[in-house]
Structures are given as C-alpha cells and as structure tokens.
C-alpha cells in the first residue's frame, strides 16, 4: 500500500503483479526478494525490496515527496526512518504476539509490556506533532511512511487516546493519491477473495 501511495503521489503509472504465499517462496521470487516477502519493485534492470527503500527511491526520482530545501529533505528522510525503525517495531511485536503467539503461556504477560511501548512511542510522536498538519512544514515521504505505520493500529483503539494523531492519519487518508491507491488495493483484495 505504501508503494502504491507513493507512486500515486508522484503521478507515476505502475503495474501490479500479485504473488501468492507459495510463489513468494519459489526461486523466481527469492531472486527478487531474498527473504521471500513482498513488496518488490522492478524498474528496468533495477530490482528493489523493502517498502521504505522502494518509497525512498520513488521519492528521490520523482518530484512531490521530498522537499527541495536540503534541511527539509533531510528531516523528511529522518521521519521515514523513524517510522520504520522507532514507531513500527513495537506495533509489529504486538501483531506477532496476537497473531502467532496467542496460544503461548507468555502472551498474556507480554501484551501489557508491548502495549506500553506502543503508547510511549505514540505519546512522543503526538507531543512532537502537536497541532501541526504534517511532521514538517509540508506533506512528505516521512508523513507517507509514518501514516502507513500508524494505520497498522487499525481498530486497536490506540489512536483514540491521541486525537492529533487520529486527525493526522485522517489527513493522509483524505489525500487524493491515498484514495486512489486504497481503492486499487481494495479492488485487488476483493477480487482475490472472490476467486
């Protein structure tokens, strides 16, 4: 979704190739993504994997997601890395505990600790965002990745305690490029469920 959104923001056409879970473990896909995951990105002879790396490549090569001012550009890149490396890890840990470890004896005791870590990061992010619309002066790749991370919280209720973060995510989701990317992603999901 983050890659689709980035491509929509910069107005670049793209084709989507769906890959099944079985295909992700086949040698043809492993040649594109050594860890057998998605997404992958192909542009001529260039093959990239990892959504943040792909989004960064798109932002570097097409105007619209990185500010021209060198300092603002550096801040946008910093927020992109903060989203992936600081805010997302505790969210992913909680998802793993709920989805893959829900039947383990330690999960009940581990969840409060993981949820505390999420709340700590959300509090810090909320304090930094304050009443601003975006993490820096204008929407950038940093916002795109951060909103993508925050959307992982979905219906968990975490964002209910942070009205400014809820509004921040809503602003991102209201962008025309996001709406197009989401509609396309939803259409693919719907079609796969009907197949």
Structure, described:
- The protein has 195 residues and is mainly alpha-helical.
- Helix 5 packs parallel to helix 7 (141-151).
- It starts with a helix and ends with a helix.
- A hairpin with a 2-residue loop joins strand 1 and strand 2.
- The chain folds into two domains: 2-64, Glutaredoxin (3-Layer(aba) Sandwich), CATH 3.40.30; 70-176, Glutathione S-transferase Yfyf (Class Pi), Chain A, domain 2.
- The chain is built from nine helices and two strands; from the N terminus they run αααββαααααα.
What is the level 1 CATH name of the largest domain?
Mainly Alpha
How would the global form be characterised? globular
Question: Which range does the strand content fall in?
Answer: under 5%
Q: Which blocks of ≥5 consecutive residues have pLDDT under 50?
A: none
Secondary-structure element order, N to C: HHHEEHHHHHH
Secondary structure category: mainly alpha
Strand element count: 2
CATH architecture classification name of the largest domain: Up-down Bundle
What integer value in Å does the Rg equal? 18 Å
Order of strands side by side in the largest beta sheet? 1-2
Helicity range of the residues? 55-70%
The total tally of domains equals 2
Mean pLDDT: 93
How far apart the termini lie comes to 21 Å
Number of helices: 9
**What is the CATH topology assignment of the largest domain?**
Glutathione S-transferase Yfyf (Class Pi), Chain A, domain 2
Query: How does the major sheet shape up?
Result: 2 strands, antiparallel
